[in-house]
Structures are given as structure tokens and as C-alpha cells.
Design a protein that fits this description.
Blueprint: E1 10-14, E2 21-22, E3 39-42, E4 85-87, E5 99-104, H1 114-127, E6 132-136, H2 140-152, E7 155-161, H3 166-174, E8 178-182, H4 186-200, E9 203-204, H5 213-227, E10 235-239, H6 244-259, E11 268-274, H7 279-285, H8 312-321, E12 325-329, H9 331-345, H10 351-365, E13 374-379
Parallel strand pairs: 5-13, 6-7, 6-9, 7-8, 10-11, 10-13, 11-12
Antiparallel strand pairs: 1-2, 1-3, 4-5
Amino acid sequence: MINSEQSSLLTELKCPECGTIHSVAIVQTVCTHCASTLFAQYSLNTGITKNILQGRPATMWRYKEFLPVVNPKYIVTLGEGFTPLLPVKQLKKFTPDNEVFWKDESGNPTGSFKARGISAAVSKALELGVQIIATPTAGNAGGALAAYAAHAGIQAVVYMPKQTPKVFKDECRLYGAKLLEVDGSISDCGKQVNEQALLNGWFQLSTLKEPYRLEGKKTMGYEIAEQFNWELPDVIFYPTGGGTGLIGIWKAFDELEQLGWIGSKRPRMVAVQSTSCDGIVQAFHAQKLVSEFADGGFTIANGLRVPKPYADKIILKVLRESKGTAIAITDEEMSAALKEIARSEGMLLAPEGAALWQAFKKLKTNGWVLPGEKVLLINTGSGYKYLENIVI
């Protein structure tokens, strides 16, 4: 059960681009002035201390004051969050002078970190009276929406690329969602969702075109701080498709500093992409403010096939602010890493997570990761769902 002695400290939605304030009392999508993603704002100068966390359930809703649901009765939870930190052990030959940890999101409901954002977004949609939710997905978000919508008594409509492994499609159908398969990438799915949502009056849950999925994803940042005893790691590697988690983690660190729970130290953030869709990597190294559309077709990492993230400008801003970097990994490298980690660490990662291991080794070899630095790799999902894509 969710402890209800104190409700959300949510105050408003603010556009990070133009500063326009939007109400949290009605359904919102993006900024009505400049179409930017909206950020939820909270009253963080209330003197709240870390002591509020004592005795709370080990889920993401332990941070409910900093999540958007005002009335706790609308919280839709399946126990998501507070995933473990696991140190690299058998592969320490690659990390002789670094502490390297995995934050393993594969144990979340429906097998991925998508449960976090969907839990927050569906909860807020339920509180605002939404009855039908539609989303484009590369796989995991569709399954998560189908499950949480079922739990909330809301209808889910999911648009998914035909090339997505069958298990993702079966999952959606088993949870009762209406599934439509699309020739093309998630961008093509997004176009169809947008058209049909306007025609049918559906609420869209597209990545960063709705303000509350970001809030669920940011709880990874709260957990990282708490699990590292409020001292952040030096480097965080993050698989970057739509980039919600990377942006959310960065937002969490800002909120935690305002609360006085952490200091001003920040990790260097590393965006890891597939060579099939590496627009962020190209834009970062060309010092551009936005990315170009980049779609080289199929990749075994479904979640990384996002040709142009909606919030590319914000992703690139986080990388620059954090003094981070961006790197692209091939399918062959992901597959090799997935097998190496499974055989040496006993973890069956999603290809998106396995890409981080190759990215770490490359950046360690070229000296970008420094001796003595504490490094965190975020595995975003379970490899079991991707077996159709992997040659064993």
C-alpha cells in the first residue's frame, strides 16, 4: 500500500525552453508556445529530509512527494523500482582500477525500466480522467502500457514496428491492449498514433510528448543517489533511444540538490546508441544543438532504433552540461557483449544494456574513463525478450 500521510508537492509544469507555465489540473502534452517537452515542478524548499524514506516500501513510490500524483488513491503500481546495484565481479580484468556497477532494471514489472515511466504517466492520466491511452513503441513501452492500463481499467492502443520480436506483441495482446503493427520504425508508428489520436480523441503517451513518463524515469536518479549513500558516481552510461531516462536522471539530481540531499557534484553522462540510429552521437561530436534524422534500419536493440528523439536538444544539453560524451555500438559488438556478460556475470541483459559494456571498454581503453572513477552502467531490460534477435 502507498503511504498517504503526505501527498505530492507538484506545483506546475514549466517549459525548459521558453519558460511558459502550464497547469497540472488538466491534461497536457507539450508546450503550447514552442512544442518543447514540459517539466514537472515541485515545492522543494520545504525542509523535507531524507528521514521520510525510512520504513517506506522499496518501490519508486517511496519518493511520492516528488512524483506527480496528488491523490494517492490514483497511484497505479505493480511494484516497480528500487532495482539492485550489482558490482562487476568476474569481468574485473577489464576494470582493474575502477569500481563498476550495473543498475539492473530487468526485474521491473514487464521486464524493463519502462514500467517506471508508464506507472507515473498512467497514474496521472487516471487522476485526470483519461480513458483511452495510445503510444508508439519499439517494444518494452508497449508491454508496460498494456499491463498498467489493464491494472488501471484504462484501454491501451499500441503501435509497434512489424520487425519487433513476437514476444513483445504477444505480451501486449495478453494484457488486453489493441495492437497495430506498422511497416517501419518507431517514428513511423508515431506518425500513425498522432493521426489516429487526433481522430479518435485518444491521449498520447509518446516519449517526451507527455510530461509524466519523465517523472517515473527520474526515480532512477533518486535511487542511484540513495543506493550510493548520497554520493553520486563519476560516470553513468545510459542506452539512448528516446532519452527519457537520461534526461530524467539529470532532472532528479537537480531536484535532490535543491532538497539539500546531495551536493553539486554531477556524473559525466554517456549516451550509448546503435550505429543504426546514431543521430545523437553524430550531433554531439559535430557540436550541434539538435540531431539529424538517422535510420540505418534493423538493430537487435529495438529500443535504440529511434531515428530522431523528440527531445534531442535536451539530451545534447545534458551531455554538454555534464562534460559527458556519446558513442555508437554495432549489433555485432552488442551480441558479443551480451554473451560475455551472460557467461561471466550470470546476467542476461537486453542488447541495449549490453551495448554499455562495449562502450565502457572502449572509453576505458582510450583514457576517457579515468583510473579510480566509480562507473555505473544502466541495463534497461531483460534479455529474455530479445532471444529472437540473438544468434546463440
